[in-house]
Description:
Layout: E1 8-13, H1 17-28, E2 33-39, H2 42-52, E3 56-60, E4 76-80, H3 85-94, E5 98-101, H4 106-117, E6 122-123, H5 137-148, H6 154-166, H7 172-181
Parallel strand pairs: 1-2, 1-3, 3-4, 4-5, 5-6
Amino acid sequence: MTERLPALRLLLADDEPGRRTALAALLALQEGLTVVAEADSARAALALAARRRPDVAVLALRSPGLDPSLLPACPTVILTTHDRPGDLRRALRAGAGAYLPRSGSAADLAHAVRTVHRGGRYLHPDTLAPDTAVLTADELDALDLTATGSPVPPPAARHLASAAAKLGTTTPAAALRRARHHGWI
C-alpha cells in the first residue's frame, strides 16, 4: 500500500496565459497538488495569497511587477526561463524556498513544491551555472553594496578587492560591470 501524500493548495502566477494554463494542468496531474488560484501578475498573486491562503505559491520570476522582495507570505517556488545567478541570489535572500527552470519536468516541480512545504529548500541542478561559484557570498555582497553607491566599509572593501582580482579587473567599477555582464548581480 502506497502512502498518500497530503493535499497541497497552490497559487500559480505567470504572465503568459497559455503557459499558466498548461502549468496548472500539469500540476493537477501530480498526486496531492491542487491549483486553487491563478494570477497574471505579482500584484494579483499577492492579493490572491492573502485571500486564498495557499500552502505554496509557484511564481514565474519575470511576471510583470514581480520583485522577489514581495513574495507571498507562504512557501514559494520560483520558476525562471533565465539562468542568472543574480536572480537566484535575490530570490533566495527574499525567502523563496525553491528555484528551478520552467523547462523542468512536472515531477521536479512537484518535488520542489513538497520540499518547500516541508520547510526545505530545492535548487534544480540546471539553475546553477558552473561559474556561479567564482565569487563568494561576501564578495557578491560587497559588489551589491558598490552598486547601491553606498560607502564601502573596510571589511567589505577587502572583499571588493578580492572580487576585482578574481574578475581580472583593477577597480570596483570594472568589477561591478563584469559581475553585471555575467548576471552575478
